[in-house]
Amino acid sequence: MQSCFVPSESNPSMPRFFIEADLNVDTTVELTETVFHHWVKVLRAQAGETATLFNGQGGEYEVTLTEVAKKSATVSVNTFNPANRTPKFQALLGQVMSKGDRMDYAIQKAVELGVSEIQLLTSDRCEMRLKYDRDQKKLDHWQGIAIAACEQCGLNIVPKILAPISLEKWLETELPKTKLVLAPNKDETDVLADATLDIALLIGPEGGLSEAEITAANAKGFLNWCIGERVLRTETAPVVALSILNYNL
Fold first, then answer.
1. Between the ranges 6-10, 129-133, 161-165, 227-231, where is the mean pLDDT highest?
2. Which uninterrupted H or E stretch holds 143?
3. Burial class of 29 by CB neighbour count within 10 A (0 to 12, 13 to 18, 19+)
């Protein structure tokens, strides 16, 4: 199972930051405003301290803080580690949106468990109807949660949080060969027995997917996956499902 990464064996407390900048060994880089605020202002880093930076393009870099000014700082890039710590499988999560902290939690934990991409969805029982021409801030907020989750757990490829579309429209798109929907599995078949390493996982809203939506998903090749006798909350379901995938694939 995927586990949380300790950034440096020699220095377990070394902080990690995502930075939107090109990184190359033996170069110097000025910290972005966000990283400068977190590392220098909040953590009160001084010249000579080290950290791990990653830019989402693969791998990570160990850097040393060389110059600190009132509103800026510069680091020298020392070494490169190509590890990404992604799971063996690629999981596209189709998550019907929910309100408040539940959606934040679902995204955070799905990223920590190695999801490769999250497609936000609306459905018959969806609590949210966002229009991102007026609410781009919400999408940016969720992308920021994904970045923070990668900083915490050691993943170096940041999953994209895709703007919401209807479930009906998503089912018409090109999806991975293995398609699973969390729903009652009356035949009690082992849906992971023939699973590929490229997976689409559909999770409904707090009130669940309607029978018509499950039938529509089945018609597009989704297999019903029942992962226990208990009814899970919409924010808990991706955690359990992705944990099982990490363990079995």
1. 161-165
2. helix 136-153
3. buried
Distance of CA 26 to the CA centre of its chain: 30
The count of C-alpha atoms lying within 13 angstroms of the C-alpha of 20, restricted to the half-sphere facing its C-beta, is 5
Cα 77 to the center of its chain, rounded Å: 26
Least Cα distance to 66 among 57, 55, 79, 75 occurs for 75
Contact at 8 Å (CB) between 26 and 14?
Answer: no
- Per-residue CA distances from 12 to 2, 6, 41, 50, 88 (Å): 18, 6, 21, 11, 25
Token pair, residue 126, equals 């969806």
Spatial distance between the Cα atoms of 15 and 147, rounded to a whole number of angstroms: 14
pLDDT (average), residues 53-67: 97
CB distance 78 to 25 below 8 Å: yes
DSSP 171-231: HTS---SEEEEES--TT---TTTT--SEEEEEE--TT---HHHHHHHHHTTPEEE---SSP
16-18: strand order across its sheet = 16-18, 50-54, 60-68, 73-81, 28-30
Cα distances (angstroms) measured from residue 193 to each of 28, 74, 181, 228, 237? 50, 51, 15, 17, 20
Q: For 75, phi and psi rounded to 5 degrees?
A: -125, 155
DSSP character at residue 37: I
Q: How many CA atoms lie within 13 A of 190 on its CB side?
A: 7
Q: Report yes or no on whether pTM surpasses 0.85.
A: yes
